[in-house]
Amino acid sequence: MKKILVLITISLCMFSCKTDTKKEENSVKLETAEIVETPIITLGEFDTKAGDFVSKEIKVQGIVDHVCKHGGKKILLVTDDGDAHIFSEERFDEALMGSEITVTGVVLEERIDEAYLLKMEEDNIKSHSEGKSNEEQFNSKKKHLQQYRDQMKADSTDHISNYSLQYVSHTTIE
Question: Region annotation Disordered: residue ranges (predicted)?
């Protein structure tokens, strides 16, 4: 009787193992790769549409007008209709100056609001009181901060957004 029970148990184990294996072999897992194209925004519409793409990747095309000489990690991309600042972790090649390129980058937003302006005002006062800025620099900064406030009031908004791109890659247009 024990022999029969052992044989039945072994048979059931073998049968269940075969069934599981066949299920795995017969089941086909279909995976679909979602292809998402990076949107292209003209520099003429960059300032108005960039807010819809904050922290997302986009492409822009223009002429490299300026490569920052202080660190080489910033470029200004321009067309007749607009411009965009591009920031990178690595230095840009100065040979890009004057080239027409397409840049892929992630949209960054710098928000200037009342808290930001108060902090800038505080820094301006501190810098002036410590002798790090002269009267002309102090007043110029003060005037600039007031211009931001006036712009926010005129636009009936509580902030100003400045958009730029964090560099991902580029291609040169021949």
Answer: 126-154
